[in-house]
Amino acid sequence: MKKSIKYFVLSLLLFLGLTVGQISEASEINRDATVQIELYKLLFAEDELPEELENNGQGNPFEAPNSGLLKKYRGLNGVTYNAYDVTTDFYELLKSGKSTVEAQQVLSKKDMESMTAVQTSVTETVREQDGVAVFQLPTFDSNNRYQAYLFKEVSGSPYYQAPSAQLVVILPVFGKDGKQLEIIKLFPKQLGRKYTPPTLTKEISQHQASYGETINYELVSKVPGDVWTYDTYVIKDQADERLNLHRNSLKVLFNGKELLSESRKIKFDSKGFEIHFDPMLLQKYAGEELTIKYDMNIKEGAEADTAFINTASLKTDKDFIEREQWVKTGGFRFIKQDRKEPLKLLEGATFVIKNQKNNYLKQNNGKWQWETVSDNIAKNYLKYDLFTVTSDKTGVFQLTGLAYGKYELVEVKAPEGYILSETTIPFEIEEGTWKIEEKLVGPLVVVNERIPNKTEVPPTPTPLLPPKKPVLPQTGEAANPSYLVGLIIIFSVISWSVFVKYQSFKERGE
User: Fold this and answer.
1) What is the pTM of this model?
2) For 330-362, what is each residue's pLDDT tens digit?
3) Coiled-coil stretches, from where to where (predicted)?
């Protein structure tokens, strides 16, 4: 429920309680006399707008100890006021029987659309005070009468809900000491926009990256319409210790333009930054988006498949908002084995890494780089200072700190006693290729062929020749005696078989 504070209202309308005759009979007339009227546009926070108080033309009725109030308000620049001469209307109302107060009340509601302003002023900073519109106006009209002026707000501000009421000033105005005021101060009040909480969003350019690779972060906070009522407006970002902030990359922007340093103070620490904004200076950006851009990278040695989180927060005296983003790096494990004896683990195999663009990995100050190599890679990898991985005594070697993607292992040095492999080993790094639920993923097997030992080389086998077909002697050729003996034996066996069968047949016939 909106807070409401009621006070005895005397009026914002200034007048001197004299009769019409007294007003018209100014004793001393100086046609060149002027009066300075200053309007102090006051913007009050939501739910803190007080009722009208007596405006004596000198002090601020809403300022303690004048009113006993401790209300939060501020002067508002950029509001345009017109001054109108309503002297004739005022005196005609008096002649018609209206009292001075009644005449002022009628004039304060007068439609001024068809009237021509005698002067225009825009609220600005005067004597280190915001929201002041200054008018220098004649004290008397051409009929030697004290003037009456009406002030109307004609161009407002997006920081409040509706224009303030019209103000009427009847000259002369006297101070508490009975002297006529040469400077009259009025304090039109205004209710600020309804409170809308600030917002905070956090975006990241990528959720996976290599060691040293630049990661872009962006914080966006929509500044509330009543930010001037805040005492605190702090945006902070704290990162995992394995993330490194690029301090020189930090930028604070409004509409693409960097915010001046006097509007904010930046503090850095080992984990990030903290920006303290001046709520009063932020007011001109009310309703707009405040953007903070900065870069980070994953430090060398950070574990693969682990979320590195940084948390941004917005703290005000009314709100606390937190937003998180995470980033990971990838990894892969391998094991080197003998091709024929899988239980034999090989130490000393050295590899370089190639990407899909056929560039080779190298490392510089904790940051990965990719090098183009046209020479024989096995003979020149040291020349190009390429990054290498080597299998240990258990045959294991590993690679961490690369972004997700497809790569190839290229062997540049074989284990002692083994043939250098000319076949590249493709592998793909993605989430879960290093560990799953804190358990390491099994390694990819890479094999080598042993160099054959001379003592192990088998004798050259005698080639098997097809048997020769038997050849009958040709006319004019000498026969082989063994060959003839064989033919005689075969012929004798056949003859005997025929004779035995014939005798059996003859006996059955008888």
Assistant:
1) 0.67
2) 999 999 999 999 999 999 999 999 999 999 999
3) none
